[in-house]
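Action item from last week, closing it out:
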Amino acid sequence: MDITHKLQINATARTIKDAVATQTGITGWWSKDCQVGESEGENSLLKFDKQGTIVEMGFKTISVTASQVIWECTTNANPAWIGTKIITDIASKDSGSEVVFSHAGFDDNWARQEPFEMTKQGWEHFVNSLVSYCETGSGQPW
């Protein structure tokens, strides 16, 4: 199972790639407290304050190119995330970029379960934050 958002973003492909693959980018739209491994094979740790409890998410950077970034989840309090991939495909267009943002590879057993449903809801917020960050320089990270 995958969660996929098809987006039209009024920004260059480079701006979008940097948003999803760099320390500065991730802190601008996703996690205010993180250490991002910006090269293939490096690890990232994102922290979120959820009502006074710090939640940590670990990722490994699988691939970074001008048109695609792939991260694999290695640690997360939400067991549905382990082994899933966050894939950002970017295509330049005359008026900005087309982006397919996917959180892919959830086990079918998570269908209609709270961990998966919470993830879908969370991405609604963060995808909008990504678009805002890429277009205006200001997102809504947690």
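Closing note: The helical segments are 13-21, 23-29, 114-136.
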